[in-house]
Each structure stands twice: as structure tokens, then as C-alpha cells.
Amino acid sequence: MKNSKDNKKSTRSNKYDKERKTVKILTFAVVIAALIVIILLIMSLFSGGDKPQESTTDNSSMIIKNSDDSTQSDVQSSKDSSESSSESVESESVESESKESKESKESESKESEESESEKAESDEKKEVEPTDENVEEVYTEDWEPVETEQEGEHKTNFSDGSQDRIEIKKAAAVATGLSEANMIEWWVENSGEGQVVATVSDKDQTKTYRVYLNWVDGQGWQPTKVEQLEENDKQ
After folding, report:
1. Pairing of strands 183-192, 135-140
2. Is 132 helix (H, G, I), strand (E, B) or coil?
3. Helix, strand, coil % (nearest 5) of the chain?
4. 189 has which bridge partners?
5. What is d(CA 60, CA 166) in angstroms, rounded to the nearest whole number?
6. Which of 199, 227, 219, 232 is nearest to 140 (CA)?
7. CB 198 within 8 A of CB 181
């Protein structure tokens, strides 16, 4: 009986020891698991806190960089615009100076030509004494004979439409500056051997001339003197 009681007591004691060990193991496992979870949470918190900060920093850097790029672009654009405007102003200035220079040269050239023309006319025209009171102006020049188509011994033909009348009209046009198409022949008269005097005017009859001509053998009629008349005395 006594052994039976001892055995039962020993069995209960062993059972109780096993339960205590099991409880300790479970408690230790729970503690370890809790520690692991806490560590993981802490790591997650630190890790998660750093990433947004890095992202924010990166975004801030991107914004600053974009702002810098935009500022540089605006500065470059302003610089390009300024250079373009400057080049445009310089181009306009050069064109204006070139135009003014060209106009100045043309004006000087024109004045020079007019001066030379006036000087040439002054040198060529020589005033002589008028033949009567009806003469407003009289001058002579070194005119060349007007080329003739006539050959052989010459005798002046005063008939209308003759070769002499045709060539006398050409010579009078050269001396007076009138065109043959704008000329009226009022009178052609003999003034000596191989000499004629032709009275002509423009078709509007605003100017009337008395032209003196000599015949040059083999060359033609040569103007020798021109008188501009105050009024047409052959009308």
C-alpha cells in the first residue's frame, strides 16, 4: 500500500515538472517572438522614416535643379533675345549708313556730272556779237560736219525734200538741240558760196533759232553759229 502511494506521488510530481517546463518553454518562445516582432517594427519604422526623407530630399533636389535649369533657360533666352535685338539694330544701322552713303555718293556724282556738263558747255559755247536787235542769245561751238550721202561736185539744192534740205535739217537739230520730229523749218536761204542760214523753231513755237551753216566738201553741212531769236521774223 505504501509503495502504491509513493508511486502515485512520484507520477504526479513528474507530471507537474513537465507542465512547468512546458509553460517555461512556451513563455520563452512568446518572449522571443515578441522581441523579434518589436525589433522588426523598430527596423521598419526607421527604414520607413528614412525613405520618405530621402524621397523628399530627392524631390527637393529635382525641384531646385529644375528651377535652376528654368532660370538658366530664361537667362539664355533673354541673352539670345538681347543679342538678336542688338544684331537687328546693328544691321539696320549698317543698312541706314550704307543707304545714306550711297545717296550721298549719288548726289555728289550727280552734282559733279552737272558741274562738268555746265563747265563743258561753258567751254564749248562761245558768245559772239549778234547780227541784229532781234537776237536774244548768240553762240558758237566746234561742231562737226553732219555726215553727207552726197558725192562729187556740190551745188546746193534748196527744194523741199532734197538731200541738201534733209541734211541741213539734221545739222540744225544738232546745233539747236531740237529733235527733227519736233522742228519746223521756217526758212532756208543762201548766204554765199556753200553757205546757208536756216530759221527753225520747235513745234510749240516757244523757241526760234537762226542757224548758220557751211558746206565742207566730202563731209557735209557744218553748223558755225546759232542765234536764239526774241521773235520769229520768218513767220
Report:
1. unpaired
2. coil
3. 60, 20, 20
4. 197
5. 104
6. 227
7. no
Q: How far apart are CA 208 and CA 206, in angstroms?
A: 7
The x, y and z cell numbers of residue 106, run together, are 549719288
Q: What is the dihedral of CA 118, 121, 127, 133, to 10 degrees?
A: -80
In three-state secondary structure terms, 64 is helix
pLDDT cut 70: percent of the chain above it: 61
Instruction: List the Cα angle 146/176/121 in 5-degree steps.
Output: 95
Burial of 91 (0-12, 13-18, 19+ CB in 10 A): exposed
Could you give the CA distance from residue 18 to residue 229 in angstroms, rounded to a whole number? Answer: 164
- Give the pLDDT of residue 33: 87
CB 221, CB 174: distance < 8 Å: no
More confident residue, 12 or 209: 209
CA separation (Å) from 186 to 44, 209, 224, 228? 129, 10, 19, 14
Q: Each residue of 8-32: pLDDT tens digit?
A: 556 666 666 777 778 888 888 888 8
